[in-house]
Amino acid sequence: MQNKSHSILFIVLVLALLGCETPGSPDFTLSSSVDTPIIADASFIFFGGRNAIIDTTSNEDLADLFSVDGDNFLTLSVDEEFDIRDLDDVIPVIDVEPSPFDAAVGEIQLDDFSSQDDDTGNLGEASFEELTGIPSDLEEGDTIPGSTSPFPVNIEPETDYFVSATIKRGGINVSIRNELGFNIDEVTIELFSGNNFIGTVVMNDLNHLTTQSSTLPVVDNPDTDPEVQLTNINTDISISWSEQTMQDVAGSLIINHLEGEELFASQVEAVVPEQDFFSSGVTDFSDEDIQLTQPDHYVELETAVLTIQNIINQIDIDIEMLQLSFPGIRQAPYSAADSLVIVLEGEDRIERNNITPVLKSIELSDVRLYATGNEVEYNIFGLTENTQQNDAEDARVINESDMLSAEVVLTNLMIKEAFGILTNKQIILNDSEPGSLGGVDIKNNFEAEIIEIDGLSDLSGKVDGITFTNSSLSIDYFTNIDASATIIGAFLGIDANGNEFYLRGLPGSDFQLSPNDPTNDLLVNGSPIPISDLIKFDIETDGDFTTGKSVTFDSEQTNISEFLSALPVEIRFVGLANINETGQEEGRVTTPVRFDPSVGVNIPMSIVTIERAAYTDTTSADLSDLPDEDDDFEIKEGILTLNYENALPFMVDLQLGFLDEADNLITYVPLPAEDPFEIRAGTVGASGFISNSHTGTKHINLSSEQLSQLHRSRNVKLMAGLETIDRDEVRVRSSDHVSFQITGKFTIQRRIN
User: Fold this and answer.
1) Could you check whether the bond before residue 592 is cis, i.e. omega within 30 degrees of 0?
2) Using one digit for the tens of pLDDT, what is the confidence trace for 347-368?
3) What's 307-320 look like in SS3?
4) pTM for this model (two decimals)
5) Phi-psi category of residue 33: left, alpha or beta, with phi > 0 → left and psi -120 to 50 → alpha
6) Nearest CA-CA partner of 374 in 581, 583, 590, 92
7) What digits encode the pLDDT tens for the residues 591-623?
């Protein structure tokens, strides 16, 4: 505030008149009293235009900080968004290791041995004459005497589906049809592999034109019996019969069917039917970032590529259909029935004996991995071609150890969402300066988030010592994090004079840090900020980004009143998010991870002065027309009179500092050893607002030394002490004011010679 005082040119007139009255002989003095205004009608409202304690005319930014309610109650408010870095480091990183799998053919089942597989087929036969030793000219009605075969008749059945096999277990079912023309009491069949005897089967009562079958065990007890090499299958057949009448002309005994009965081999050379095989396994991924411990835990992939690579089929048979199923990889709506099934068939079938690795890739999107224990299950089911549908001579050599092998790989994983036990992580909220060695420094202009409260410097430079009792700082935020999270940070305030101070949690409060809190990445001038200068707070995390949330630092748990009463013109912040501090709680995070905070500073003008507050300002007081040491006039005495009206809710004590044209101090009024002008406070009502003003008058005598220097005055520095009554809290309206006038009454003398 600059207030021009009234001119005192009329003093010159007075002095001139005194000169005219001077007689011309003996020495004597003439004196006169003059009154002159020092500060004429100074009025200071608390908030507003010129002559306001909070002067908004010279600084529009200062005016923008304040709001006035219907009762003219003032509140200083600042809202500033924080530019917080991307928090996607919270998203787990999973790297699914390539999972090799192999599926062996396993035991090979043999069914039909011949393409003649119907009941009327003829795989080989023995004639009437060969089996009976009787000429075959008997006819219907002729008598055939009872007897047995003179010797076994060897039959090599037609086994166009079979070349050889190493039998592990099971037997061969032989079907015989009697077309000899008479009834057989007993048929004995001996099975040979080449010249090696395998076993015997006996059939009874095989009547004319009937068929019987029986199974001959090849390996009856696989736990103890050795494997049997089977090749060049042939049979010795003999019969016995009773005397009877021929029912037809002499015919033959026919082997009309030959098939395996639960016959399994470890190796075959045959025209094999369709074979199936099955294998299962798991592939896992690291639990470093997330643990999926429950069936409903999952990782949702925005995109991924599932590759079946290095497919090698050692089997001498095509894999007509290869089905890979992943019970834990599910597509929307993510039920068990929505699990991923990949089928390779048709053009994608796996050809036999391929030694060049084959690769098949499938693009995935919006799938979830349900992987309890961080293990992804897979099942492999395969069906081979049925070579019996091909050329009957298309025999293949197959071993039970022949393998189909491949690798299942998940790559290019872009995680969209994760739900499980998230590993504890500390995510720095500020960007680090390129080349930084780690951490973020609150004094680094690139790294610190800085709020500049434009305009507050004027108030900060004038007022000192006031405590704003109901002030608060709030963090308003939107977040889609659905996991426990604590923000640990430092708020550094800097006032207009460069003084620095931190916002702190009070001892025992929820905002106070413990020695175990991770703080080493929060720095000041390269060193960790002491935990006593840090503050922490939990954020509400329900995953709902549409609903704003807030946490408020108030005077009950923090030093916010002290912090904001220092009137910081700049607030700096560095911080980190401590996610799932215990590492035991389940949570959900979604890409992109959002935490959008803003800071709100609210300073209602509810004031208390714990100590005497100070206010300073300067106004014009040009007293150059008063006599100086070279004049014939001198000031013999002077009294300053203060008339005031105080409509502020606090007492004001006033001291004047008279300044020369270089703003050097000439003198104080009153002197420092003397009591200042005391301006009593107005009456404060129960609401804390002023109800009545107080008026009064104060006088002070100036010393001769002060009077001799007063002509040098060009400005007056007003130094006011503000103090609430009994240190009680008061509330300030924008219209609250104090006004006063200061006049000087001087006695001026002239020596007459």
Assistant:
1) yes
2) 888 888 887 777 788 888 999 9
3) EEEEEEECCCCCEE
4) 0.66
5) beta
6) 92
7) 888 888 888 877 776 666 656 667 777 888 888
Are 413 and 286 in contact, with CB atoms under 8 Å apart? Answer: no
Phi, psi of 640 (to 5 degrees): -100, 135
Helix (H, G, I), strand (E, B) or coil at 712: helix
Residue 213 pLDDT: 93
Q: Could you give the CA distance from residue 640 to residue 745 in angstroms, rounded to a whole number?
A: 6
- Cβ-proximal residues to 50 (8 Å cutoff; 6+ apart), any chain: 1, 57
Q: What is the 3-state secondary structure (H, E, C) of 356-377?
A: EEEEEEEEEEEEEECCHHHEEE
Best CA proximity match to 176, nearest among 258, 254, 122, 261: 254
Distance between CA 238 and CA 204 in Å, rounded? 12
pLDDT score for 68: 57
Separation of CA 145 from chain center: 98
> How far is Cα of residue 57 from the mean position of the Cα atoms in its chain?
47
Do 340 and 330 contact (CB within 8 A), yes or no? yes
Whose CA is closest to 564, among 534, 507, 604?
Answer: 604
Distance CA 679, CA 675 (A): 12
Interior/surface letters 336-371, b for 16+ CB within 10 angstroms, e for the rest: eeebbebebeeeebbebebeeebebeeebeebbbbb
Upstream peptide bond of 670 is cis (omega within 30 degrees of 0)? yes
Alpha carbon distance 753, 24 (integer Å): 7
Contact (CB, 8 A) for 192 and 246: no
Q: Strand order of the sheet with strand 52-55?
A: 52-55, 28-48, 737-752, 633-647, 694-702
- CB count within 10 Å of CB 259 equals 18
Are the beta carbons of 73 and 649 closer than 8 angstroms? no
pLDDT value at residue 175: 92
